[in-house]
């Protein structure tokens, strides 16, 4: 129940980020919908394709399509007011990232992958919707250029597998993983923590 | 027989559209071939990957490769005269879109997907070759920016499923779906019907 | 043993080419790693997805991830000195292309595909890591614009299948295919052989 609510909120936040980028590029209403859709389900779709879990997730769960259509319509109608919800959107987005990472890790475990591959899969689930969005909009993906984003997914996944080494209830480890990702991202943005600069000039 | 002929004409039209975009970007002959190939088979390939129908279609049907190679060679040799066939090309392209949409829908039904997902799959089959073409050529996909294109696929698919509610021969519904897409696209282009503008300024 | 060594050298060369393109775009350290990773494993991943060999190769072979991580770290630390190894890198890269092409062809044969499709699959394995790298970096893929690169993969694959028509030991045909690709590419670059120009002006 709570899980479903978080999933829906994450989907909405991801879809809205797609709408904003697409409208910035002045795409037509079909383009805006596709970008929103791809941003919301692209990460999970890539994950499912790479592990061979087909038909991919959203094809058998029409509720995603419904949620995204409604989100796109409302976002386009009230795009000027979306700015007022910037903070809420950022929070939903962060919650979505935490949840999507752990969903991807779980899928990897079910497929029998090693922990390091599960973490890669979880990070991909959380981050590659945005990568595909940026490619379709002809931009270098924003997560390759700035902001601690994928890094917190990787760290959160690592913490989860570390906890599994101890006699801890898996559900508690699962929830702790999600919370760690959320808290680390909030802290990173609040204190403007960035990846080390690798360029001398 | 007729079906195969239409399929070949559609493939040719899609491949030529790839050649024209690629030559506009002054790619070398290998690049032109790849773009033509991807434009012609990209939509069906994405569809097959997403539903897990592998090896993907063109890999087991070498006739596609043969048709596309011949199309590319002839197109490059006579590129200056291609303009004279603009209207025929547009017609083949439109017929291809109608056919590909219904092929995709049929594949979705065979996979046991819901009607709304079948329509998404059909639209993808018809439109995503062009999307991949534009991404490889470093452009924002043209169908996200203008022209009623995907929209007629969605409407045509909707009409098909509507007809299936009534005691109508499925083959007739199938053909009607294709014809509706073709006619709607021709009308939309003739009367310059566009999607509603969502930008206030 | 030798085979594994070549595979590792090829992976390193591909990863370094990714690091160089990514640093040229001034991506952050996470972006550099992803581009290096995608360049090294992207071609094989696309191949595995298209033939339905999932989970895709690198997911079950963590040594690729380890090799790439080490390569990226060393490359970033000593990026200024990488120029001195330009010739070695080009050689590794060429060896990698020869090997990857034949690995892809072998996978195609195991899947029961026709020779022409196996050659397409081999060429894809060798070349599409670079294509995905360029798309992620918002460039038109370099292999569509210049340099005999894919063409030597196609020719090498053709030579391999030609040899299989004669009573030749398959392993010898396999190694000859790899060597042909390597030699043809070295000659093409040395003598500046290019694809015929298809543009009149």
UniProtKB/TrEMBL annotation, chains A, B, C:
Enumerate the subcellular locations listed in this protein's record, separating them with semicolons.
Cell membrane
Give the family this protein belongs to, as stated in its UniProt record.
Belongs to the UPF0126 family.
Q: Indicate whether Ligase appears among the record's keywords.
A: no
Q: What is this protein called?
A: Uncharacterized protein
Q: Which UniProt keywords apply?
A: Cell membrane, Membrane, Transmembrane, Transmembrane helix
Which Pfam family, just one, is annotated for this protein? Gly_transporter
Signal peptide annotation: none
Residue ranges that the Swiss-Prot or TrEMBL entry lists as coiled coil: none
Q: How does it sit in the membrane?
A: Multi-pass membrane protein
Native organism:
Maribacter cobaltidurans
Tell me where on the tree of life, at the top rank, the source sits.
Bacteria
Where mainly found?
membrane
Give the CC-aspect GO terms. Answer: plasma membrane
Q: Does the keyword tRNA-binding apply?
A: no
């Amino acid at each position: 129940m709570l899980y479903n609510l978080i999933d829906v909120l994450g989907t909405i936040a991801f879809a809205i980020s797609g709408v904003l980028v697409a409208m910035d590029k002045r795409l037509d209403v079909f383009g805006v919908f596709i970008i929103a859709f791809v941003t919301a389900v692209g990460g999970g779709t890539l994950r499912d394709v790479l592990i061979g879990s087909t038909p991919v997730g959203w094809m058998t769960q029409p509720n995603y399509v419904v949620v995204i259509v409604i989100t796109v319509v409302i976002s386009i109608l009230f795009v000027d007011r979306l700015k007022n919800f910037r903070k809420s959107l950022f929070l939903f987005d962060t919650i979505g990232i935490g949840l999507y990472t752990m969903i991807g890790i779980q899928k990897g475990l079910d497929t029998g992958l090693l922990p390091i591959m599960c973490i890669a899969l979880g990070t991909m689930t959380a981050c590659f919707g945005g990568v595909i969005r940026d490619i379709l909009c002809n931009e270098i993906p924003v997560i390759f250029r700035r902001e601690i984003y994928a890094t917190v997914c990787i760290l959160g996944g690592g913490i989860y597998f570390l906890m599994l080494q101890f006699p801890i209830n898996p559900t508690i480890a699962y929830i702790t993983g999600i919370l760690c990702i959320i808290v680390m991202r909030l802290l990173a943005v609040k204190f403007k923590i960035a990846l080390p600069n690798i360029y001398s000039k």
